């Protein structure tokens, strides 16, 4: 990741807490959460964060059981996620 105009390494799960904070308890389109995550990352100084990395992390959080997904084999615009209970 780039921070203060310098390249830094970060663990793959660096953005997971932020991503989890953006997912509601009711179903929401994956693309909406992803857009909010990109905006939050930019406002936190991570302007060059990849949408592909954040999408992969959201999908990994579904696989790990922290989020619930439906239509995850569909496109970003069709897939939905919510917090698991």
Any overview of this molecule?
The chain is of the alpha+beta class and 85 residues long. It has one domain. The protein has helices at 16-22, 30-43, 51-63, and strands at residues 2-3, 6-7, 28-29, 67-70, 80-83. Strand 1 and strand 2 form a beta hairpin. Helix 2 packs across helix 3. The chain is globular. The mean pLDDT is 90.
Write the layout of secondary structure elements.
Blueprint: E1 2-3, E2 6-7, H1 16-22, E3 28-29, H2 30-43, H3 51-63, E4 67-70, E5 80-83
Antiparallel strand pairs: 1-2, 3-5, 4-5
Helix pairs in contact: 2-3
Q: What composes the largest sheet?
A: 3 strands, antiparallel
The class by helix and strand makeup works out as: alpha+beta
Give the domain tally. 1
Give the fraction of residues assigned to helices. Answer: 40-55%
Oligomer: single chain
